[in-house]
Amino acid sequence: MIPFRQTRLVIFLFTMLYLVVLLKCSSGQRVDPSYHPRLPNPATFQKNNGPIVLIDESHNNIVATKGRYTPFIEVLRLDGYIIKPLRSPFTVEILENGDILVIGNALHDRNVQDWSLPTPSAFTDKEITEVCQWIKKGGSLLLLADHMPLPGAAKNLAQALGFEFTNSFVFNPETWDPTIFRISDSTLVDHPIVRGRSEKESIDSIASFFGQAFRSNEAQPLLVIGPSNVAYLPTKAWEFNEETPSFSAEGWLQGAVRKFGKGRIAVFGEATMFSAQISQSSKEKLGMNTPEGKENLQFLLNIFHWLSGLIEH
Questions:
Q1: Smallest Cα–Cα separation from 153: which of 103, 78, 222?
Q2: Domain boundaries in the chain?
Q3: CATH 1.10.3470.10 is the classification of domain 4-29+50-307
Q4: What φ, ψ does residue 137 adopt, rounded to 5°?
Q5: Which residue blocks in 28-141 are alpha helix, DSSP H?
Q6: What is the pTM of this model?
Q7: First vs last Cα of the chain: how many Å apart?
Q8: Which of 185, 191, 190 has its CA nearest to residue 227?
Q9: What is the pLDDT along the chain (313 residues), one digit of tens a residue?
């Protein structure tokens, strides 16, 4: 008879092996070619007449104007936003060319090919100071930092803005299913962004796909992680074992917003929810193209309406 402790170890290792395969399949993702976003309501702005959105492409960003996050860009363009890539270091003067800055899944040069610790900041101290000054003067920021090592690269910036990132992977180890945040159980928090500008824009549930857990004493929660999810802290992305540190992610956040001086900040610890992707190996859909994520597109629009000052709180 195999001792209980050994049996538990075998079960754990098989579980982690399955998870590693699953996550590596998820990492080999591409845009879902069958997905073509359509606005659920009339566009907010006339074509190319809305606020200017600067998309950071100067920090090895995975979220950019081309590639896996083109559905994100398409949704904003359909709503009338003007999209411009930003391919230079942050300064107040450069940021003043836009109304909203999107920083998505930035990485330090060290981690472009090596997703292991350490994960240095993707931004210089000067850039962080410049971004904070620009927001305080009235700019708006959407900061996206997915699972490890991406939170590590954005940790210093997040801290300056009042958010504590964890360099983690967050998921339900029993199911590995997408995390569903619902109004009905208060994991999706009642907020003007969730209610939208009318009943047609209101949201009941949101799906996310792994990501990290963060917290903030300064921000208003939007997505609160429930009791089934665990945050794992590996030393290398997708490598887990029985010694991998972990903690219950219950009560931690995957989405929150705050005012910052005269400006606004929205932070999310998961980015695929705002795209429409497909696993190259399993063909599994991830993002706005899934049944679970059918309201994610409206959620994305509501976030930008809030960042644009069209939704107050």
A1: 103
A2: 4-29+50-307
A3: no
A4: -80, -5
A5: 70-78, 92-95, 125-136
A6: 0.92
A7: 61
A8: 185
A9: 334 343 343 334 444 544 544 444 445 789 999 999 999 999 999 999 999 999 999 999 999 999 999 999 999 999 999 999 999 999 999 999 999 999 999 999 999 999 999 999 999 999 999 999 999 999 999 999 999 999 999 999 999 999 999 999 999 999 999 999 999 999 999 999 999 999 999 999 999 999 999 999 999 999 999 999 999 999 999 999 999 999 999 999 999 999 999 999 999 999 999 999 998 877 899 999 999 999 999 999 999 999 999 999 7
In this structure, what token pair is assigned to residue 287? 């993002």
Among 300, 305, 267, residue whose Cα is nearest residue 99? 305
Q: Which of 113, 119, 217, 104 is nearest to 168 (CA)?
A: 119
Beta strands in the chain (DSSP E): 29-31, 52-56, 82-86, 100-104, 140-144, 164-165, 169-171, 179-182, 205-208, 214-215, 220-224, 230-232, 246-248, 253-260, 263-268, 276-279, 285-287
Question: Which residues pair with residue 230 across a beta bridge?
Answer: 171, 248
Spatial distance between the Cα atoms of 199 and 202, rounded to a whole number of angstroms: 5
Contact 173, 15 (CB under 8 A): yes
